[in-house]
Amino acid sequence: MHLKSPLSLYPNCFLLVLCLLPLLGMAAKKPRLIDRKATKETVALHRNLHRLTKKHILFGHQHATEYGHGWSNEPNRSDVKSVVGSHPAVIGVDFSGLTGQSKERIDAYRDRLRATIVDTYDRGGVTTAAWHFSNPVSDNGFNWVDSVSSPAVRHLIPGGSHHEQYKAILRSVGDLAKSVRGRDGKLAPIIFRPYHEFDGNWFWWGKAHCTPDEFKSLWQFTVGYLRDSLDVHNFIYAFSPDCLFTTTEQYLERYPGDDWVDLVGVDNYADFGRNGRYNVQAGVKKLTIVSDYARKAGKLAAFTETGLESIPNTSWWTETLLKALLTEKMRLTYVLVWRNDTRSPTHFYAPYPGQVSVPDFVKFYQHPYTWFEADLPKLYKKRLLGL
User: Quick one: pLDDT at residue 101?
Assistant: First the structure.
């Protein structure tokens, strides 16, 4: 007896499969870290951050536990905790002090930075590190200054005049990364966010000061050298331009490729009230571009920087920020507001006791969508219930 093949019995099904193949190829990629040797804790954090974005967003604050409005270097303190009883879920730090200073000052900075990262990990929080990196060619800080600053990117990449110097700088970053061990003896994972806001011109690595290919080369070398040569395996790599884009194509103009990025983000103050100007609809569109690309590419997404300086708008937290985050079905890992300066009476982005936006911030804190440190499950464990 001759048996017919299943495809001859169901020719229409075969045609349907052929039609669906292109669409299947467009399906979202499975989330996976670009570092195949990442530590177990880094893998667990990455997996759990992907899971929690379905229902929650983490709230973050830059330098939250290092200093705040009118204080600095006080153990287990943050302005956010003073207001709502919990630290932010995400604590922002900066690798800026690892270069451009004397060895003694760099060592002292590294010690303070290590303590902040380890304390955050031991409490169960998440650390993200920016890098306001002093120009290693003209040695004049991270901001671009006409007639003073040098277009350094071309000199740092392989073949450049300062490439060996750049490798030494990266070794300093790597040494710090491999020293941040918690009470459990494990390395604390860090969301590393170098060369942010690169689509503007205010930093020496900005758009006007290097070509797209030069920027991509710098990014790829940075990641590759840290990961493959220096054996740094507790980084999650974050890519975050400013908000100077309106399409996915513009967003990806300097993107180094999916093999070099774990998290895509955006910094956006301009659409959320800076200088009294609001264009929240435009801000939501940009966040949606980031979120949609992340889901397609299997990446995390985040609102990597935002805020309203001095927070004069008493309902900004719920009527502007929270509404924007909830407008579309975005999946964002965290939203981070900028720092609270110790001395300045006006340069702050999170409320402190008595600040006019405190009542609204408490509502923001109490909303089930927002998570602070006190809400966090054990993110560094492999499997979690309830996410």
Answer: 87
